[in-house]
Design goal:
The complex is a heterodimer. By secondary structure, chain A is an all-alpha fold. In chain A, 63% of the residues lie in helices and 0% in strands. Chain B is built from 7 helices and no strands. The chains are: A mainly alpha, B mainly alpha. Chain B: Keywords: Membrane, Transmembrane, Transmembrane helix.
């Protein structure tokens, strides 16, 4: 690294380039706190979201740490039953609504959607900023519920416990989730309108990067599922505050209706978490395999199919709640059907790797980890979709392990894959690759060590949501808690080296990975206007090699210079 | 670029590099499209309430009929008339606003729309007072013997209150347009905000068209 370059951390620069009088980057457009908090620049709002979801992630992670610490031994020795209930509720509520659901769409999505389609900003920049404030307001309300004594209902807020019996701060926490729902609806409206109205000339629907398709389908779920949760939660508040007995069985109300409405949102919410992750993985795998994505149109239709069919599978959460055998059969069948497009995606990623010149840079390690963890999570989902097995493992750690494989293993791996992949574009800096590779591998092993034993403990019958358990389950819990410690280190490492890279990292080139997307055809970091001219799209996406041609005879890849083909 | 268009054109539409006319047309199309998506979201919001109502009414048809007979048909019908009239005026304002020249008509229509909305809320307030006076609030002292009748009134209070909040937001939006348009002659003509706000108003209207028969008419035929 040559010394003596006068570098402001936010100026535009590529060390190989001369000063060309290019426009200043979005990071240099203002250095005051006010310039961030009132910015309507989608890139700055993405950074705001990234900071807030990181805070929520570590808050939810702290609660999970306490839970795993308590479960190290069969007896209650760290916390009591009541505190334990409040801890896992806090963990679930914060992680689901304030980390996982906003994670990829509002950070990477916000930053990249206009760049990927060649737009200057989102369609409604002020709405975009407002959505962040709504998210923060919701988060503060829910966090204040924790200060007001916590919530002990579990993240599902099942009635009549949450309405009639619980003496904890349910209303406050539920209102926080309600407010954050409007934040995601605003994001959804913005993404859909932006994709429809602001695509650059030549960026046809079937030239959109799969990440944009993933954001688009996610936003459909945002817009159509979130309001149902909003009403349901508002009814919980109405019943607690004004004694409106919608779900009160004593007066003819139906608690099962709550479950139907809750899962009508909360099952699609899983697809809110996984669809953007699939989009990220499609970008990363194509780039580091130097291949066009296998079956682009099928990948698009698979995203749409998951989004649509995902709306009709909610009943598989309720097989044991009281449901006719016919309804159970239908929901079971639909749950199997939704696995088909998911499997198409896994097979297509694998086929994309075939004859690729695969590089194992850190984003690719995270992405390959995603494929493995998603496959395990998806296949165990099929176990749970079949009624007899579901009845056997209902409310056990098998379920916990299954949804953590999808929501944490897959989604969070993809979030980190995307974070590392686009970090040079976002910050204009390179991170230390060795550390990043180490963290990626550690995360994969830590995750499996934490959650694979839970499949076994759950299958053997260990119920979830208890702070004590029979001693024969201890071995699985010790393994799991040890894995959680490894996982915690793996999550803390990026916080360290990515922060370091912002201050001391090497300058990033405009396109350090030699990737094909439009977002790389501008400076790193991009200027406020995103592009220097008016972008126009002339080719298909993932243009890594001539169509129909075999790959060039293997050339050695020089990772420091990106990928050669 | 004329002063009015400069006023109306917002980011990111001003950066498209298009002539003002077509940039403004795309901005209007984008804004209208956005509010339609939001309305789709709202349909699911009220759809969930109507689903709850449907399931509970199928489970307890007699109690729901008995409870619905306790609502005040006069106030409900009067409110329906007020809101439908306001919806007509909103549609007139939206259509007349395409192109300059009808500013006074648009202003009058907007003011009347907001005024009728306020009248709706006033009637609703009187009706609420009467309902509370007759203890038609779920809980101890509820006049009807069947417990599920309280379910009907739970839905009644919840749905009308949520609708009232939506209407209050609508009144705020329309009144804002009327005030800004009255102060600045260049504000209203061709402004996308007019159509966006009035589409929202139309949606709140339609919700009431569904709520009225569900809440006021059961048990009253024959």
């Amino acid at each position: 690294m040559s010394a003596g370059l006068a570098e402001s951390p936010t100026a535009l620069a590529d060390r190989g380039e001369l000063a060309l009088g290019l426009p200043e980057s979005y990071l240099a457009a203002g250095h005051t706190l006010g310039s961030w908090l009132t910015s309507t620049d989608h890139k700055r709002i993405a950074i705001l979201y990234a900071i807030s979801i990181t805070v929520f992630f570590f808050l939810g992670g702290a609660a999970a740490t306490m839970v795993r610490l308590e479960l190290f031994t069969p007896k209650a020795d760290v916390v009591g039953a009541d505190t334990y209930n409040k801890l896992f509720t806090l963990h679930g509520v914060i992680m689901v609504w304030f980390f996982l659901i906003p994670s990829i769409p509002t950070t990477l999505g916000n930053f990249l959607l206009p760049l990927m389609i060649g737009a200057r900003d989102m369609a409604f920049p002020k709405l975009n900023l407002a959505s962040w404030y709504l998210n923060i307001l919701g988060g503060l309300l829910t966090a204040s519920a924790m200060l007001a004594g916590g919530i002990d209902t579990g993240w599902t807020f099942y009635v009549p416990y949450a309405t009639v019996f619980s003496n904890s701060a349910v209303s406050l926490g539920v209102l926080g989730v309600f407010v954050s729902g409007f934040s995601t609806i605003a994001t959804g409206v913005n993404v859909i309108a932006t994709t429809h109205t602001l695509r650059a000339p030549g960026m046809t629907w079937f030239r959109l990067p799969l990440f944009v398709w993933a954001l688009y389908t996610t936003s459909l779920i945002f817009v159509l599922a979130t309001p149902v949760l909003a009403v349901t939660l508002l009814l919980v508040v109405a019943e607690r505050a004004f004694d409106l007995p919608i779900f009160d069985p004593a007066r003819g109300g139906d608690p099962i209706l709550f479950q139907h409405l809750f899962w009508f949102y909360s099952h699609p919410a899983v697809y809110i978490m996984i669809l953007p992750a699939m989009g990220v993985i499609s970008e990363v795998i194509t780039c580091f395999a130097r291949r066009r994505v296998f079956g682009y149109t099928f990948m698009v239709y698979a995203l749409l199919a998951i989004a649509v069919i995902g709306f009709f599978t909610w009943g598989h959460h309720m097989f044991t709640s009281g449901m006719s055998p016919f309804a159970a059969l239908v929901f079971s069948f639909l749950s199997f059907i939704v696995a088909v497009p998911s499997a198409i995606k896994v097979f297509n990623w694998t086929a994309t790797l075939y004859r690729g010149q695969i590089g194992f840079e850190s984003p690719m390690l995270y992405a390959l980890g995603f494929v493995g963890l998603f496959t395990v999570g998806g296949l165990t989902g099929l176990f749970l979709a079949s009624v007899p097995i579901d009845v056997h493992v209902q409310d056990t750690y098998f379920v916990v392990a299954h949804f953590h494989y999808i929501m944490v293993g897959a989604s969070v791996s993809a979030y980190f894959a995307g974070l590392h992949f686009w970090w040079p574009k976002v910050t204009g800096r390179m991170y230390p690759e060795t550390w990043a590779k180490f963290a990626a591998i550690l995360m994969f092993f830590g995750f499996n060590l934490t959650f694979f034993p839970q499949f076994i403990a759950g299958y053997l019958g260990m119920p979830r949501r208890y702070h004590v358990y029979p001693p024969e389950f201890q071995i699985w819990n010790v393994l799991s808690s040890s894995g959680a410690a490894v996982l915690a280190v793996a999550y803390l490492m990026p916080l360290g080296y990515l922060t370091w890279s912002v201050l001391f990292g090497e300058r990033a080139r405009n396109d350090p990975w030699n990737a094909s997307g439009l977002e790389w055809r501008t400076t790193s970091p991009p200027p406020r206007e995103n592009f220097l001219g008016k972008p126009e799209v002339l080719a298909e996406p993932y243009n890594y090699h001539p169509e129909g041609a075999p790959p060039v005879k293997d050339q050695p890849r020089i990772p420091a210079q990106g990928s050669l083909t | 670029m004329s002063a009015a268009e400069k006023l109306l054109l917002r980011e990111p539409w001003d950066g498209l590099g298009l002539p003002e006319e077509s940039a403004l047309a795309r901005q209007r199309a984008g804004a209208t499209f956005g509010i339609w998506i939001f309305i789709a979201s709202e349909v699911l919001f009220f759809g969930a309430i109507i689903l709850l109502y449907t399931v509970m009414r199928l489970e307890h048809p007699d109690a729901f009929a008995a409870a619905a007979r306790e609502t005040n048909l006069v106030y409900g019908t009067l409110n329906t008339a007020l809101l439908l009239t306001s919806g007509m005026l909103a549609a007139v304002a939206s259509r007349m606003n395409e192109g300059a020249g009808a500013r006074r008509t648009v202003l009058w229509c907007l003011a009347a729309t907001a005024g009728l909305g306020l009248a709706f809320l006033a009637v609703k307030g009187i009706e609420y007072r009467e309902d509370i006076g007759r203890h038609l609030v779920p809980g101890p002292g509820f006049p009807l013997p069947q417990p599920p009748a309280q379910l009907f009134f739970a839905v009644y209070w919840f749905a009308t209150a949520i609708h009232g909040i939506h209407l209050a937001i609508g009144i705020g939006l329309v009144a804002r347009l009327a005030i800004l348009g009255w102060r600045d002659p260049a504000f209203l003509p061709d402004n996308p905000q007019v159509e966006v706000s009035l589409l929202y108003w139309g949606f709140v209207d339609i919700v009431w068209i569904f709520l009225y028969p569900l809440l006021y008419l059961p048990g009253r035929a024959g």
